[in-house]
Amino acid sequence: MALTVVLAVLAAFFVRLVDIQVVNADDHVADSLDKALAGSQPLYGTRGSIVDESGQTLAGSILLYDCQLSPLLITQIDADIANGTSEAEPWSQVSTEIASITGSTPEDVQAIVSTALAEDASSQYAKLGSGLSTEQFRALADLDAPYLACFSHPARTYPDGAVAGNLIGFVGSDGEPLEGIESMEDSCLAATDGSLSYQKGKDGVIIPGTEREVPAVDGGTLQLTINRDLNWYLQQLIAEQTQDMGAQSGSILVVETKTGKIRAAAEYPTVDPNNVDGAGPNDRSSRIFRATFEPGSTFKTLTAATVMDAAGQNPLSTVVASGRETFANGARVNDAFGHPAYTYTLAGVLMDSSNAGISKFSERADVPTRQKYLENFGIGAGTAVGFPGEAKGDLPPLDRDNQTIYNTAYGQGLTTTMAELAGAYAAIGNDGLRMPLSLIESCTKADGTVVTPDLPDPVQVVSADTAAKTREILESVFLQSGVSKPLLDAGYRVGGKTGTGEKPDPATGGYKNGVYYTTMIGLAPIEDPEFVVVATLDEPLKVKSSAANATAFQKAVAQVLKTYRVLPSTTAPTLLPKFG
After folding, report:
1. What domain range includes position 77?
2. Is there a single domain that holds both residue 337 and residue 250?
3. Which residue in 84, 174, 301, 513 has a CA-CA distance of 20 to 30 Å to 561?
4. Which parts of the sequence belong to the Penicillin-binding protein transpeptidase domain (predicted)?
């Protein structure tokens, strides 16, 4: 009989157990979860790295930690210690250790907990600190304090400081991209955060089996076309030249002629993305892409190429020009120095940088033709780079007025950018074919997918023969001026042109008195150009002409050729005649 009773009781328990755990399990789980506390925390994805052409990191992400305390658990453990039921270290001692790790004082750490308890005696959260380093996190973890929890999140770091800072840009304290490539390529670099949600009991302990995770997706790796070491060297170089000449700013741009890839873009002053506040507001981006200027005599090269390609001229074609010429439409053009009427060759006009001479040559191509060639050279169109806030040169109708027809032949009355000008000269170096400029090599997504930029088609601006003749002229320009001598001594033939552009004065509507924007641009090696190098200075004071740029330009060209192991020239240069 007793056995029957026992079996009946066990059967009843069994039936009830099946009812609870099987038949009505969902209802009971729902009831328990209703009484549980919901919790969640973000799972941060890592923002992608920015690397140079060889994979060297220019921008990356590190982990920082936000740490919190449970004031309620602290009071409970201290109570257990007082009751003799716990051998844990008391809060007074642990808070001292925490303070030494976080760089605070024990009193400040203890105040975090006491303030939270004063507001809510059951408080399970008090913020200890944010942005703690990995070393601090590890030291805190070694304390093995059950009421201390830390959660990681990514933060941005720039290991080379200001190197290419003008291009890379920076992100805000909240991780949002604010400038440069960080902003321009955010679609590649940005991570997608995930989340971890769970249920926890009143004691704050997570209920097993309630965790639900949405994984984070890391950002992609962005590879640039620039060379980190070359950019570093050129930044030091242009900083020294800018300061030596008392200029407001300076820049050096290097473009590979056959690809349009930008290999260096150095500027001074610039920004260290690790310390944005250390740079002035005007120094936190790239003047190479955002600043426009009157190019001055560097435009004579484009005019010479135009009249050779469209009007049958050649380097030995001649004009008669004095130091001051008045044209049939009333326009007047002066040279930088007075001289009687010379019978100039086209090469000689560029060698003497004669405004009057190039203006006379420009008449041999009609105005619509000249306008079209400048457009094809990329003047006024910006570039394919798409840099944030990138400016475009101002190319007006060349026949806007009688003076503009001639002024534009020698780079006055219009504006361009360093990038536009470099692209135009690169076309001359690349047998007349202008390649779109690029700064981005590729984006490798987190899943391994590689995305390359969608660039416009190249433009054949002038014929290969015209480009070769233009390069012959440019070599004679540098030979005659002596700019190429240090490079020739090193075994390299180079060619190029200088420009001293006037600066507009907003106050008067005219030009500033006695200050200029100076440019030196060249191709190397000139017999088969691989690179365009441009060096500019804004308002140099020690030397106010483009001669101020010579040292920086020469050293920059030498370093570019050394970096890319370009073989010395095997043929001798030829100096074209200046006069016919």
Report:
1. 62-157
2. yes
3. 301
4. 250-553
